[in-house]
Design brief:
The protein contains 15 helices and 18 strands. The protein has 426 residues and is α/β, with parallel strands linked by helices. It folds into two domains: 175 residues, Alpha-Beta Complex (Aspartate Aminotransferase, domain 1), CATH 3.90.1150.10; 245 residues, Aspartate Aminotransferase, domain 2 (3-Layer(aba) Sandwich). Strands 4-14-13-12-9-5-8 form a seven-stranded mixed sheet, sandwiched between helices. The chain is globular and about 55 Å long. 48% of the residues are buried. The structure holds pyridoxal-5'-phosphate. Pyridoxal-5'-phosphate binds next to α5.
Length: 426
């Protein structure tokens, strides 16, 4: 497969953009080699500037649940943008989309649209602090909630030790207020919350983690978390930016039957455009300006083109759509895992409905430490390039989730399954 033009364009990109990219993982640092430069997408297929076609399992990091350029969403975008692109005042698109989401996600009484997932989680944290008048936040190791200062933290050593930043440039004063705990560990959770209850404003969690590979939270873990947060007036924030509308209309919280106080959304709800949103209990949301004293604003927030496209996308998602999508993933993962077991290959597909990831180990993975142990950059690098040569595009880093869309056919999945079997039998 020829990547000549991608290489040329990427070298030009490096002269004008930092590292040639606008988001670090796109630089292919995780898999080596020169990043591909993409031209267009249709259905499950993504086409690069050299004219190569790939079945796309990255899908704009999970945003494209209908695949690339789905007709209804594109028509909605075109129709809306012909009437103007941004007005800086309320439009009906926002109201319609807010109604749809509020109806689908039971915990959301009121919503605020923003422009990215990072903005949503950052604002949800400020809101929690304003509501509770407390400062500390709790997150979990390996969960990613965007790149705001408070959240770019992994755990330090020891139970509930103060977090260490994952980035230069984050003031220590920020991290003093962030605790990062092991995912799925009920005991540590109880001890920490009980110890710092008077200082903790919120706990933020991916209820199914997708940024350390896919790890569903254990139900008793989430139940304990809900009980404790309720008891101590701590805002429970579910970050459903990746999981929201991915496996059903009620989001992951409806699968678990747990009602968070605030939910963060993004990715899918923008129909492929930049988006974020946070919404939840009325008494908490009412603390936001203009009703309350917690300030948060945005020139482009609630953009009509984005929300019309998002709504056109959401309207195509229904129980039948999800049943087919989730079944396809279930069958695919099950068959491959059976194959790995039968051939004594220490590899597994971790999955939750239509979110999947590779584990280069046959051990159960329940938290970030397990996920690190089951990761293997070297094998993933080889696998990534092997699949790419076969016309399959995976996220360019191990520990990222991969996805299928409504446009992925059984044949697409069979092609991926066969390529994986060949690779691991070699
Ligand atoms: C769970 C989760 N939260 C937050 C974010 C940040 O969203 P954005 O990249 O739109 O800022 C991401 C992005 O991948 C995510 O997966």
């Amino acid at each position: 497969m020829d990547h000549k033009r991608s290489i040329e364009h990427f070298s030009a990109a490096q002269k004008v953009m930092v590292g040639g990219v606008n988001s670090p993982v796109r630089s292919f640092k995780g898999v080596g080699g020169s990043p591909l430069v993409m031209e267009y997408g249709k259905g499950s297929q993504l086409f690069d500037v050299d004219g190569n076609a790939y079945t796309d399992y990255c899908l704009s990091w999970g945003a494209l649940i209908l695949g690339h350029s789905p007709r209804n969403a594109i028509l909605a975008a075109k129709k809306t943008l012909e009437r103007g692109t941004s007005f800086g005042v309320t439009t009906r698109a926002e109201i319609d989309c807010a109604k749809f989401i509020g109806h689908a996600v039971a915990s959301i009484d009121l919503i605020r649209f923003v422009n990215s997932g990072t903005e949503a989680t950052m604002s949800a944290i400020r809101l929690s602090r304003g509501f509770t008048k407390k400062q500390m936040i709790v997150k979990f190791d390996g969960c990613y909630h965007g790149h705001s200062d408070d959240l770019l933290a992994t755990a330090g050593s020891g139970v509930a030790s103060l977090a260490q930043s994952s980035s230069a440039g984050v003031p220590e004063s920020h991290l003093k207020n962030t605790l990062s705990l092991p995912y799925n560990d009920v005991e540590v959770l109880i001890k920490t919350i009980e110890r710092y209850a008077n200082d903790i404003a919120c706990v933020i969690i991916e209820p199914v983690a997708g940024n350390m590979g896919v790890i569903p939270a254990r139900i008793e873990f989430l139940k304990t978390l809900r009980d404790l947060t309720k008891k101590y007036n701590i805002v429970l924030i579910f970050d459903e930016i990746m999981t929201g509308f991915r496996s059903n209309l009620g989001c992951v919280q409806s699968d678990y039957g747990i009602v968070p106080d605030v939910t963060c959304l993004g990715k899918i709800i923008g129909g492929g455009f930049p988006i974020g949103a946070y919404g939840g209990r009325k008494d908490i949301m009412n603390c936001l300006a203009p009703l309350g004293g917690v300030y948060q604003a945005g020139t482009f927030s609630g953009n009509p083109v984005v929300l019309r496209t998002g709504l056109a996308t959401l309207k195509l998602l229904n129980p039948d759509f999800y049943r087919v999508l989730n079944d396809k993933c279930e069958t695919f993962s099950q068959q491959l895992n059976d194959f790995f077991v039968k051939n004594a290959i220490a590899v597994r597909i971790s999955h939750y409905k239509a979110m999947m990831s590779f584990r280069f180990s046959d051990q159960i993975v329940e938290n970030y430490a397990d996920a690190r142990k089951a990761a293997n950059d070297e094998i993933y690098r080889k696998l990534f390039w092997y699949l790419l040569e076969k016309g399959i595009y995976m996220p360019p880093a191990d520990l990222e989730a991969f996805f299928i869309s409504g446009a992925h056919t059984k044949n697409d999945l069979a092609q991926l399954g066969n390529a994986l079997k060949e690779f691991f039998l070699k």
